[in-house]
């Protein structure tokens, strides 16, 4: 993934993106319930990776979760800090987390893996598994399709994935899938799939 290209693309539309997607009220109720179901009872820190404007980090904090956010885009982090005072937000990369092995209780990566080329996904999932404690939860949001492939996302090129392919890659990385939730196309909204998995004991 060309991280500079992704960062610059989102920075160029940050205000528009925040206006369209930067509040929990703009998130589908089923998605909020899915996130809460798998992360609200986690012990230890929960990382919202690719947190964008910080709205889901703030949602997790409202549920009593020790959540913090990480994103590549400085404009998103500045907004998140202003909108959610008292919550930690940092500029950083999800490919190399600055945490001790097995120290994280949960990870939310909500549409933050969509710009990764297929050959990079396994490495990122392995990094998530390194960070998570055994039994820690991983929640992903992805675009659903019947084959892996790129498409012209409104911001920068993104990828769609079949459910079975993501399930297989989660298993290879050391996770056990516990639930997935699919939603078909609704108007201009592309088909979506959310995954929840837990880290296996090594």
Mean pLDDT: 92
Compute the separation of the termini in Å.
Answer: 29 Å
- Beta-strand segment tally: 9
Low-confidence stretches: none
Inertia-based shape: globular
Largest sheet: 9 strands, mixed
- The proportion of residues forming helix, as a percent range, comes to 25-40%
- Enumerate how many helices there are, as a single number: 7
**Beta-strand share of residues:** 25-35%
Order of helices and strands: HHHEHEHEEHEEEHEE
Structural class comes to alpha/beta
Structural write-up:
There is one protein chain. With 202 residues, the chain is α/β, with parallel strands linked by helices. Helices cover 35% and strands 28% of the residues. Strands 1, 2, 3, 4, 5, 6, 7, 8 and 9 form a nine-stranded mixed sheet that branches. The longest helix is centred in the middle third of the chain and has 14 residues, at 118-131. The two termini are 29 Å apart.
List the SSEs and their pairings:
Blueprint: H1 3-12, H2 14-21, H3 29-39, E1 46-49, H4 55-62, E2 67-71, H5 74-83, E3 89-91, E4 104-110, H6 118-131, E5 132-144, E6 149-151, E7 158-161, H7 163-172, E8 175-183, E9 192-199
